[in-house]
Write a structure and sequence with these properties.
Largest sheet: 7 strands, mixed
Number of strands: 7
Distance between the termini: 10 Å
Structural class: alpha/beta
CATH superfamily: P-loop containing nucleotide triphosphate hydrolases
Shape: globular
Order of helices and strands: EEHEEHEHEHEH
CATH architecture: 3-Layer(aba) Sandwich
Strand content: 15-25%
Low-confidence stretches: none
CATH topology: Rossmann fold
Length: 196
């Protein structure tokens, strides 16, 4: 699949305020500063579709984009170490969880994992929550260009092992990407194409 058109629709402060629609939705979420906006821009082949920032936690609403006129890309707020108040962080959590649990248009949530790091407890816990709540999801390792090949393989294998240890018998679909080197996007879009 190739993205021929990508248009920002609007932002929503709550999942409940999003209208019903017939188009399937594919959400992107990850820990703050995981490279989500860069990945979205790379996939869409647009420089500024999603705003990038050096400050973690910039995305604070549910941002929606119409892709090729037939499916929606949903940019969800990050979770983790964003420098915001606990009250606002809790609000982000409610926003994220209510969308993932209740949005019937959601075909797949792509959970972004920083490939430079060994498994982070918050990422493993978030994956576990998605499993318990039957949220359809895949794993996308980001920033793979920052590592040597053997380091990348080591970290991705550690993450798989962490999931097995937490009780996963069958692992979700996984992708390795780099927005800088333009790798892995074809595979992610191909997967979306199979589901649309």
């Amino acid at each position: 699949m190739k993205i021929k058109s990508a248009k920002f629709i609007r932002s929503y402060a709550t999942a409940e305020s999003m209208p019903d629609s017939k188009e399937p939705e594919f959400a992107f979420i990850g820990r703050s500063n995981v490279g989500k906006s860069s990945l979205i821009n790379y996939l869409a082949d647009r420089k500024n579709l999603a705003l990038t920032s050096s400050k973690p936690g910039k995305t604070q609403l549910i941002n929606t984009f119409m892709i090729n006129g037939d499916w929606k890309l949903v940019d969800l707020p990050g979770y983790g170490f964003a420098k915001v108040s606990q009250k606002r962080r809790d609000k982000f959590s409610d926003l994220i969880l209510s969308y993932l649990k209740d949005r019937k248009q959601l075909y797949c949530a792509f959970i972004l994992i920083d490939s430079r790091l060994e498994p982070q407890a918050i990422d493993v816990e978030f994956v576990e929550w998605c499993g318990v709540n039957e949220v359809p999801f895949s794993i996308v390792f980001t920033k793979s260009d920052k590592l040597k090949k053997n380091e990348l393989m080591h970290n991705t294998e550690l993450f798989k092992a962490a999931l097995h240890k937490s009780g996963w018998e069958e692992l979700p679909e996984m992708f390795v990407t780099s927005a800088t080197k333009n790798t892995g996007g074809k595979e992610v879009l191909g997967y979306i194409g199979k589901l649309v």
